[in-house]
Design a protein that fits this description.
single chain; 69 residues; mainly alpha
């Protein structure tokens, strides 16, 4: 698993180098970054479990109170 993480980080660095080489620092690069940011945010929140980890304690509390009259 650590090897996969290391390879992922290296490929991410290569991606950023290629991005910087072709896009530079202009308005096109800014537009690309913004277009990439929105879907990536949803992936981080929903796919990597941040929202789930925050929601479970709230859900359990509501579930416990639901069965009491």
């Amino acid at each position: 698993m650590a090897l996969a993480t290391l390879i992922s980080r290296i490929l991410g660095m290569v991606r950023e180098i290629v991005y910087a080489r072709f896009m530079g620092d202009g308005w096109v690069a800014g537009a690309f970054q913004l277009a990439f940011l929105v879907p990536n945010l949803f992936r981080r929140l929903l796919g990597e479990g941040a929202l789930t980890a925050a929601f479970i304690p709230i859900f359990k509390e509501k579930e416990k109170n639901c069965w009491s009259i």
